[in-house]
Design goal:
66 residues; alpha+beta; three-stranded antiparallel sheet; two-stranded antiparallel sheet
Length: 66
């Protein structure tokens, strides 16, 4: 799950696998595969960094199991 902050200040957590695309308009629009979208304060770069960190942690955890 990726932590983001809506324009209202509400913190939400989204499943990164369900994100279809990100658009900077100048806030960030997070379009989900089901057609829903969220406007968030986080930049596209910040969101992509969170995804990279999450995936890296998953791979590191998998390597510990082997």
């Amino acid at each position: 799950m990726i932590k983001m902050t809506r324009l209202s200040g509400e913190v939400i957590y989204l499943n990164y696998i369900q994100i279809q695309y990100l658009e900077s308009i100048p806030e960030t629009k997070v379009m989900m595969v089901n057609g829903d979208y969220y406007l968030v304060k986080d930049s596209v770069e910040e969101i992509l960094q969170q995804v990279k960190v999450f995936l890296h942690a998953c791979v590191a955890f998998k390597d510990k199991l082997l």
